[in-house]
TrEMBL record:
PANTHER family: ANAEROBIC MAGNESIUM-PROTOPORPHYRIN IX MONOMETHYL ESTER CYCLASE-RELATED, RADICAL SAM SUPERFAMILY PROTEIN. Residues 9-237 form the Radical SAM core domain. Keywords: Iron, Iron-sulfur, Metal-binding, S-adenosyl-L-methionine. The keyword Transit peptide does not apply. The lineage of its organism: Bacteria, Pseudomonadati, Thermodesulfobacteriota, Desulfomonilia, Desulfomonilales. Its cofactor is [4Fe-4S] cluster. InterPro entries: Aldolase_TIM, BchE-like, Elp3/MiaA/NifB-like_rSAM, rSAM, rSAM_sf. CDD domains: Radical_SAM. This is Radical SAM protein. GO terms for molecular function: catalytic activity; iron-sulfur cluster binding; metal ion binding. The keyword Transcription regulation does not apply.
């Protein structure tokens, strides 16, 4: 299998076959992200993708495929449908195809477009939200407004596609943490996703956020402040039925809950950690990673 440069995928796609439908990210401006800074964005040819799929046919039954890189949903509709047909034809055992997306590229697809992709087994879409604070969305160059993120999320759900979103603890810095957390709870409530993954900010060299950090314009909140942000997000949000996780390697306190069912129980557990402020209850620093 041919891969060009570093390849990233969501934790839940660990057992999936990864096919690079694009190289890099067509936005690639988020101040905190260093994932695709070394790649010039391009859409791979259908012929190259089919060659990879032909090789994958010899790997045995494949149930899940993830289309990398950063935002393969930006591929024009007809061409993307051709890619997904190629996946289905080469790997008839496939049950679900996953993809990263950003709000603007979701909104470039009509509801009918998304339903057509769903019929071709697009089963889950991963959307980076990071924050619900409108000012912070501008500051981190997310490329979408609060309203666009919510509209995009609702369109995905209306199409019958599972929606998984990520939010970023600590991205508001020391002084903006609670505003960021409350705003994020609001946007999560408005979006009502199926899954939420909370990660913690890690300053990556070579990013604009790192430049702010070096200049003293950004400071990472202390571990218990990050956990307090997590508490606010859970306490102030409201979901129909959502799996909420903070068990990514970047986090100090791993949490997995189904909300609203587990809300009281998980808040009590977080409160015990915040009251004790016992460092032994946190993931050690040397074990944290992107």
């Amino acid at each position: 299998m041919r891969y060009i440069g570093a390849v990233y995928r969501p934790p839940s796609e660990a057992q999936s076959l990864i096919i690079q439908a694009t190289l890099g990210c067509n936005h690639n401006k988020c101040t905190f992200c260093g994932s695709y800074r070394d790649k010039r964005f391009q859409i791979r040819s259908l012929e190259d993708i089919k060659e990879d799929l032909a090789e994958a046919r010899h790997m045995g039954p494949v149930e899940r495929v993830f289309l990398a890189d950063g935002d393969a949903l930006c591929i024009p509709q007809k061409r993307l449908e051709d890619v997904m047909r190629a996946v289905n034809e080469a790997l008839p055992s496939v049950e679900r195809i996953g993809i990263y997306a950003n709000a603007k590229n979701i909104l470039r697809k009509s509801l009918e477009d998304l339903k057509a992709l769903r019929a071709l087994k697009l089963g889950i879409l991963y959307l980076g939200v990071e924050t619900g604070d409108p000012d912070l969305l501008v500051k981190i160059c997310k490329g979408a407004t609060y309203e666009q993120l919510v509209e995009a999320a609702r369109r995905v759900k209306d199409a019958g596609i599972t929606l998984s979103v990520t939010v970023l603890l600590g991205i508001g810095g020391i002084n903006g943490g609670e505003k960021h957390a409350s705003g994020t709870a609001r946007i999560l409530t408005d979006m009502d996703p199926d899954y939420v993954g909370a990660l913690s900010v890690i300053v990556v060299p070579g990013t604009p956020l790192h430049e702010e950090y070096v200049k003293g314009e950004f400071s990472v909140p202390e571990p218990f402040d990050l956990i307090n942000e997590l508490r606010i997000m859970i306490a102030e949000s409201s979901f129909s039925n959502c799996v909420f996780r903070s068990n990514h390697a970047s986090n100090y306190l791993p949490v997995k809950a189904t909300l609203p069912r587990d809300k009281d129980q998980i808040l009590e557990a977080i409160d015990r950690v915040l009251r004790s402020r016992d460092q032994r209850s946190l993931r050690p620093e040397f074990m944290r990673a992107l």
